[in-house]
Recover the amino acids of this structure.
């Protein structure tokens, strides 16, 4: 197992050569058309059935979405989210066998501005999507990413969720829903056209957004930042239109990639939230991922066989090489491994499934204990001997050696040399200044408000001033608050009362 | 699948149609026409040869985004007449008259 060229290739060869003459493993009658997992070949109709069943089962099993609840579907136009839309569409339809009883709406974030796409291209794409959304009959919102610049600071403040409902609450809610005859009106109170004419974004906003993206120097950080901004905008849109659930179309393959990526990005502590079924870090809006049991292959086949329309939207990763970012590299690693070892994705995914998503900060944690960008808890466990502490310690040690050591071994010797070794300024202060020199003193303060991974992302930005105003003002607010807290700390009686 | 590049490959008297899904088209700026008629060289072929043909005739720019080694890049699915090519012998499949070959990318960003 440890050799590069293993000698037992023969054993790894597929035992039985698959062929078209093979029958469906489920009904054993029809010829198989798709190999879902290694060796499991399904025919067309059995594949469809299992696909649909999986979706309903996922929602039924998890009991997170209550009947009559408003659920916002985040549709990018890609295969996975479009297939999710189809599932919901069929699920709430008149003749659905086991009807889904929530009220769906659709949101699409037009990221063209961050990718430098022309207005015409964005128009065309959004009109395609509009057409697709209109045919569903659900209310829909097409929001340009530029709007992230106008978000209120409240996006970063998670209102505490409605108190955790016990399992029995779900049953009660179902009963109540049935009694009130909620099932009779399948389309629900259909809002007259949820769409807003947002196609005409002001050019200056687009330029600001471009500046923000350009200020990020690495592709990895760019993707991470874009992801964060998109998430904020989605949550904001959901809140604005009073949706309490946000459905994301992450597939199993995608989540497996995300799991490994997150670890590489230093987001180990947030893994469960990043990849779990439900993500309650936003408090009143809970993100759910109902597509997480489907592999990308299943989705692609379903979309092709059952003519699910998709709108191919280029993103930051289009046409990039494997090594352009950690995200891309991980994806290529996983997909390559998957071709030779077909259970790679599911193994990674199952491992991730074991991670718990405890909504422990839904009520207790204060906003200042959360990361400014990703809203995850800042001190996961806060153990003395955690990897995070070790990293921080070694970072601190390598920074404070200024006056002690004579040879600067800093990554950027030029900057350090100019300031530390010759200048009259002393050790720690100076180093803090140096490390954040391109961005000014604010970064240093901002770092304490971010989780480790988001710190890395912000560090790759040439200037934090390009961050959207709501982030900056919230950072300012928190900084002021903690300064104030420090000032009055001697007047406080004891630590427990600081939470007031 | 929406936008496709159609390539009618003439092999003797046989015609097989291959289409590239919209996601794959994102990879190649050269070909973003919705319908693209392409009749070309003859080959008596199997899938392996078809890939070589596509690489030579359709994808002049950065073929590594589509083909790696002598097979498709991992993450790209191949359907032969709406069935998984794993069931059809993959690269050894002998193309027949009126075959319909579809390539779909499952990678993020095409």
């Amino acid at each position: 197992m440890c050799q590069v060229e293993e000698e037992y290739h023969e054993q790894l060869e597929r035992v039985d050569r698959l062929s078209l003459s093979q029958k469906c493993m489920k009904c054993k009658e029809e010829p198989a058309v798709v190999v879902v997992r290694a060796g499991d070949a399904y025919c067309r109709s059995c594949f469809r059935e299992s696909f649909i069943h999986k979706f309903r089962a996922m929602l039924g099993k998890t009991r997170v979405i209550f009947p009559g609840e408003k659920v916002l579907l985040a549709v990018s136009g890609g295969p996975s989210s479009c297939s999710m839309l189809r599932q919901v569409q069929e699920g709430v339809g008149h003749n659905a066998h086991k009807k889904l009883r929530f009220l769906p709406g659709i949101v699409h974030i037009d990221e063209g501005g961050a990718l430098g796409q022309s207005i015409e291209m964005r128009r065309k794409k959004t009109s395609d999507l509009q057409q697709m959304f209109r045919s569903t009959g659900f209310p829909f919102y097409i929001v340009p990413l530029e709007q992230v610049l106008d978000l209120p600071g409240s996006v970063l403040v998670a209102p505490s969720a409605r108190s955790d409902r016990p399992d029995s609450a779900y049953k009660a809610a179902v009963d109540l829903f049935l009694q009130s005859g909620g099932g009779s009106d399948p389309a629900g109170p259909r809002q007259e056209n949820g769409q807003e004419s947002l196609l005409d974004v002001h050019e200056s906003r687009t330029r600001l957004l471009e500046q923000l993206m350009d200020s990020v120097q690495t592709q990895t950080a760019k993707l991470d930042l874009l992801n964060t901004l998109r998430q904020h905008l989605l949550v904001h849109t959901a809140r604005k239109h009073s949706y309490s659930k946000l459905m994301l179309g992450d597939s199993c393959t995608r989540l497996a990639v995300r799991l490994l990526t997150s670890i590489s990005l230093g987001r180990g502590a947030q893994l469960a939230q990043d990849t779990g079924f439900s993500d309650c870090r936003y408090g009143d809006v809970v993100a759910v991922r109902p597509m997480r049991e489907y592999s990308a292959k299943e989705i692609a086949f379903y979309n092709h066989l059952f003519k699910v329309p998709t709108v191919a939207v280029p993103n930051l990763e289009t046409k990039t090489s494997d090594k352009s970012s950690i995200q891309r590299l991980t994806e290529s690693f996983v997909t390559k491994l998957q071709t030779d070892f077909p259970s790679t994705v599911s193994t990674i995914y199952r491992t991730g499934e074991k991670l718990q998503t405890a909504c422990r900060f839904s009520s207790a944690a204060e906003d200042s204990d959360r990361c400014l960008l990703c809203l995850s808890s800042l001190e996961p466990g806060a153990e003395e001997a955690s990897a995070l502490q070790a990293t921080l310690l070694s970072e601190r040690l390598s920074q404070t050696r200024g006056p002690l050591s004579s040879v600067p071994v800093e990554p950027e010797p030029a900057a350090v040399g100019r300031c530390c070794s010759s200048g009259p300024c002393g050790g720690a202060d100076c180093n803090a200044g140096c490390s954040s020199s391109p961005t000014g003193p604010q970064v240093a303060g901002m770092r304490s408000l971010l989780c480790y991974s988001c710190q890395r992302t912000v560090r790759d930005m040439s200037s934090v001033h390009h961050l959207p105003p709501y982030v900056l003002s919230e950072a300012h607010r928190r900084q002021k608050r903690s300064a104030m807290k420090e000032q009055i700390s001697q007047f406080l009686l004891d630590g427990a009362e600081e939470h007031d | 699948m929406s936008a496709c590049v159609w390539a009618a490959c003439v092999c003797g008297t046989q015609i097989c149609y291959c289409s590239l899904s919209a996601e794959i088209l994102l990879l190649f700026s050269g070909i973003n026409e919705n319908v693209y008629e392409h009749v070309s060289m003859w080959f008596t072929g199997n899938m392996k040869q078809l890939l070589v043909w596509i690489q030579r005739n359709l994808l002049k720019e950065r073929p590594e985004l589509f083909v790696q080694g002598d097979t498709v890049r991992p993450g790209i699915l191949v359907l032969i007449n709406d069935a998984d090519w794993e069931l059809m012998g993959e690269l050894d499949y002998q193309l027949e008259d009126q075959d319909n070959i579809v390539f779909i990318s499952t990678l993020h960003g095409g």
